[in-house]
Amino acid sequence: MSFTLPDLPYAHDALAALGMSKETLEYHHDLHHKAYVDNGNKLIAGTEWDGKSLEDIVKGTYKAGAVAQNGIFNNASQHWNHMQFWEMMGPGENKLMPGALEAAIVESFGSVAKFKDDFAAAGAGQFGSGWCWLVKDTDGGLKVTKTENGVNPLCFGQTALLGCDVWEHSYYIDFRNKRPAYLTNFLDKLVNWENVAARLASA
User: Fold this and answer.
1) Exposed / middle / buried, residue 83 (Cβ in 10 Å: 0-12, 13-18, 19+)
2) If DSSP codes are grouped into helix, strand and coil, which group holds residue 141?
3) Sign of CA dihedral 13, 193, 9, 53
4) pTM
């Protein structure tokens, strides 16, 4: 079974007024994400992972503590990460945090502002390429984490509620080297909080 590049859930220019340009999405989705799909399919073909679900491949090929993950993991995990990332953003009227999500965040972090500070700090503090996440952990609590390269919450049995790509290709066109500004803009303007709330509700 081959994986395919999903269409963006909005037009390439739909987030431009919110700080993510058409050019960024053309490079990020059409080139970078497509490369993960194409390379992953080539590497998986004819192996024990051929025909397995994307989630099973990510969890089955993750090698804890490895400095450089294997090629199948790198491409499969980045494919999974990006499918979540596109859905976690949106141009529409989804910028207000639903009450149940807000209550859960306040319970875990003390305030929404503290959660945003922790999330932005995790992303800014991730050395090199990687991601920052809001997850529902195995103990049921909400936590902010960061991961290197393509590593994601699936590797640790966690549920990804929100993730932000802090690889340079995600922000350099629009923000140059200002990763903290990109993270602030992501939280304040780009997140589809309805999607995050739905992930929490189904976790």
Assistant:
1) middle
2) coil
3) positive
4) 0.96
